[in-house]
Every structure is written in C-alpha cells, then in structure tokens.
Amino acid sequence: MLVYVNGQWLNDNEATISILDRGFVFADAVYEVVRIYNGRYFYLDRHLQRLKQSLSALRIDVDVDSLEIVCRELLERNKTDQGSLYLQISRGAAQRVHGLPQGLTPTVVAYVKGLSNLDTSLQESGGKAIFYEDTRWFMCNIKTVGLLINCLAKGEALSQGADDAIFHRGEIVTEATSSNIFIVKNGTLYTHPNGNLILPGITRQVVIELAHELQIPVEEKPFTREELLAADELFLTGTMAEITPYVKVEGRTIGEGKPGCVTRRLQDAFSQLTRSL
Ligand SMILES: Cc1ncc(COP(=O)(O)O)c(C=O)c1O
C-alpha cells in the first residue's frame, strides 16, 4: 500500500514516524476518513472543512489547501474505485513535555485503502446494539485520534454478541462508537443536535439534507434511552456505516424488528447520491 508521510511517498512497510511523535505519546492528533465511490471522493470539501476546525481547536497550524492536493495526488497515484482515505495530522515530534511546544513540523500521514467485498449484511438486515455510558471528554466535536473509550465500548458490544454500542450521558443518547444516531417516531427523524457532545458527522448532515428533499421532518433535539427503545426505527450514520439500521438494543426489539420504511427510503436516496458521483 502506498503511504504519504511528510512529503514522501512510501510503501507502508517503509513508512515510519518518530517514537516522540505527539500523536503517539499524547493522542495529540486529528484525522479524517473519506469515502471513495466510483473513483471519486465523497464530500472531500466537507471533510477538509471539519479537519480545519479540528486543527484550529487544537491550535495545530497546517495549510489544509496543501492537504487537499496530497489527497488528490494520493488517489491519482493509487487509483481506487471503491475505498476510503485515511488522513492523520499530529502536532509533530518533540521531547515529551506537557503544554504545547511551538514551532514543530506537524506529521502528516495519508493512505487510500480499497474496499472489495464490503459486507453490507448489517445494512440489509439491521444490527444489534448495547448501551454504553458516554464517559468521553466534552470536546467530542473535535475529531481527534483519542478513541480509546470508543474502542472499549465497541469491544464490549462485540464481546456481548452485538454489533455496536450506543453512547448515552445519563439518560440522553448521544451517538455511537463511530457513527451518529437517528430514531424515527411517527414519521419524524430525531437526532442529537451538533455541539460538544457529538461529532458533527458528514453523513449525518447528508442524511438531514436528503430527508428535507424527501419531505421527511427532522428534529435535531436530544432523546432519551427510553424514547430510543420506543422508536419505530433506528439507524446509525457514518462514512463507513453509511445508513445502517439497528433492530435490537439491549435485547429489546425496535419497531417491527426489521429495517423500517423511512430508513429504506433514506438508504435508497443515499445510494443514488453515491452512484451519481
Ligand atoms: C464518534 C463518531 N461519531 C460520528 C461519526 C460519523 O461521522 P462521519 O459521517 O463524518 O463519518 C464518526 C466517524 O468516524 C465518529 O467517529
């Protein structure tokens, strides 16, 4: 696999970064994952805009326009029909000190991965989830590589035979380990509002826009675990998940126990959009 590391194009087994890199030592790094459909990036502009916000929140100074050139060259060199781009920027390498050392050269790593034989069975038949207390920090809108709680939650879900974990702060449902969450009740879509408790998902926004086009009402307002369990439909959205229905949570059946018609309409509209690229 071809990897871009700080201006060099290398094979993945030749690519290295310093053990002092602050991404490695402090999770002092941000990232993006961008989907590739039909050899083209899906909303690269929106991902780069979010990356700009993440970089600015951490006060890492990188010219995002030059990153866009890297992303485009990567896809050019590594022609991929269906796949994803991973792009990570850390503050750079420095002696291990707390505080924010100035004048570092950020570490930029990017690669493209093909997705052949992608398993879409969850999108077709629906997944099972558990609830997991959201003990992450209060800056979940920044897409940092500090994903340990997400990994613990997903690991717990898998160990219980579920597919994912749904985070909640007290009774309020926030999002899932790598996706945003929507419920459908009486024909209206509900999802947690943007802010510091969730990642402002690109797919979440696309789904809201598609819902508007389909005249499906959307309310960006918090809902409880109880409301989730009483929903007619439930689905997760994300770059990799796209729109994935969930039909069981904590062993309780959601709606009719199968992907519902609002979810199906949105899935169809989403796949039309990705096919039209
Ligand atoms: C915690 C979290 N929420 C939501 C999302 C979905 O965001 P997007 O649709 O931009 O992939 C992700 C994606 O990685 C995520 O990690």
UniProtKB/TrEMBL annotation:
Gene Ontology biological process: amino acid biosynthetic process; carboxylic acid biosynthetic process; D-amino acid metabolic process
Cofactor(s) listed in the protein's UniProt record: pyridoxal 5'-phosphate
Alphabetically ordered keywords of this record: Aminotransferase, Pyridoxal phosphate, Transferase
Transmembrane segments: none
Name recorded for this polypeptide: D-alanine aminotransferase
Function: Acts on the D-isomers of alanine, leucine, aspartate, glutamate, aminobutyrate, norvaline and asparagine. The enzyme transfers an amino group from a substrate D-amino acid to the pyridoxal phosphate cofactor to form pyridoxamine and an alpha-keto acid in the first half-reaction.
Primary enzyme class: transferase
UniProt record similarity statement: Belongs to the class-IV pyridoxal-phosphate-dependent aminotransferase family.
Annotated Pfam families: Aminotran_4
A GO molecular-function annotation: pyridoxal phosphate binding
Subunit structure comment from the entry: Homodimer.
The EC number(s) this enzyme carries: 2.6.1.21
Keyword Zinc listed: no
Alphabetized NCBIfam families for the sequence: D_amino_aminoT (TIGR01121)
Gene Ontology cellular-component annotations: cytosol
Reaction(s) catalysed (UniProt annotation): D-alanine + 2-oxoglutarate = D-glutamate + pyruvate
